[in-house]
């Protein structure tokens, strides 16, 4: 397997320099990222029993297939992993109906419903759930207990603790406890998703005072600040509640979907990953993941909600974004939630996770920021 990974590493370096990707800088970077993600996640999908012929086929496809084809395959590869994660979470949290005498007997459904804490006040609903939003009865486990049991199943968990970076502003960092292979989805970026049409409503966006924002290639921004470090139960989060006290949105259509989100998601901590210090290299990278909302059984484990109207699309013109009611060419008609996950760029074991922030040179860069060589 190590030999095959070396072949993939060489393919990544070679394809990154291909004239196929030599277009405008933003498109160039996106195409190169998709190419790398295609190789990494496809390698991960091969598993431990991969054969050299399989690896050669993937490398050839990465060289010849269009970015659109590779992007669709990345989506499928990531979705496969997240589906597996959701199955593991179900095994940990959902009641075994046959296990009546199980010492981990579940609390009754009414006791498992989320209470209204500071998150549900700002993002959720105080209204009692309707029948179609009933929460399955669950084991009464804390986030820490769920995290430990997930490690028993998948081989790793995430911890937030003081960063190994020596800079005074480093603060907390994200650490992998256990081992994962290259191409593994290691973390979700949780929080509120804002399309470009609603950027003006993002707290701390215009004055750059919110350190927990991440921007996708398509302009969607995720604010992880409301998520914090998670919680010890499910909560009802609603796009409807997030436009309260915003007079300039009166009369506009808002996403009224109420969703129970599992706050005990042990992997919803990507916003704690630091940028590498000088002399260090990233070991994870951002991967856009469009979660299909038709996968209702998995929805509770996707730690995101949408701000605003799901029907509003946007199109780019230079640095400006315009609202549009017409679906973009090539987009699936399946409704999706545009999220972000972190993918391992090499085999990882018991180490801090570092993510290339790619801060814009047009802004005043912070003292701790060091640009990363994209050809690492």
Automatic annotation (TrEMBL):
<dbReference type="InterPro" id="IPR040415">
    <property type="entry name" value="SETD9"/>
</dbReference>
<protein>
    <recommendedName>
        <fullName>SET domain-containing protein</fullName>
    </recommendedName>
</protein>
<dbReference type="InterPro" id="IPR046341">
    <property type="entry name" value="SET_dom_sf"/>
</dbReference>
